[in-house]
Design goal:
Layout (H helix, E strand, L loop, with lengths): L3 E10 L2 E6 L2 E6 L2 H4 L8 E11 L2 E7 L2 H11 L6 H10 L2 H9 L3 H4 L7 H17 L14 H12 L4 H9 L3 H4 L4 H14 L2
Helix pairs in contact: 2-3, 7-8, 7-10, 8-10
Length: 200
Amino acid sequence: MINFLRGTLVEAQNGMVTVEVNGIGYGVYVPSSLTGRLLSPGQEIRLFTCLMVQENNLSLFGFFTSAELDFFRRLLNVDGIGPKGALKILSTFNSEALRLAIIKEDVNMLISAPGIGKKTARRMILELKDGLMAKGEGIDLTHSSDLDEEEKDALAALITLGFDAPAAKKALLFIPAKEKDNLKAGEMVKQALQYLHRQK
């Protein structure tokens, strides 16, 4: 297993880089958005990597951060998403935007990635949301700019009841989006309290 590469950047093309390590040039598939953040050829870089073995083909996928690599591996666990598909998703969204879309069940945002239809988007939400919520990932839990007015009112009520802001916001985000659209702040508070009590 190759966990990371640290070496000299030889070249960067859209979707692939060549990194020289001890005289060997490794071709690494990367999110197309990453190539714009790379240093100039000749500079040292480090990529967190995942080696994929498919039939007679070995492919190396690389990311700037271990968090991006972790999300890549999570996506591979979703039925219907392969390595190239996961890479396209991470080329379309940064990992924070993708986590937020999954947690908030934003199907319309997810299907904007190439090759992702509504069925696959819903599968991503179903299979990944709980794991992301359990780790408290995917959203800045200390600010409320991503909440609508009813959610903000519910958040304020939960804080008044003695819950800290991150825990209260996490509980609100755990309410399915399709239900939340029809709920007033008071009903959101009731559902959030049920979630918070289950966590004790």
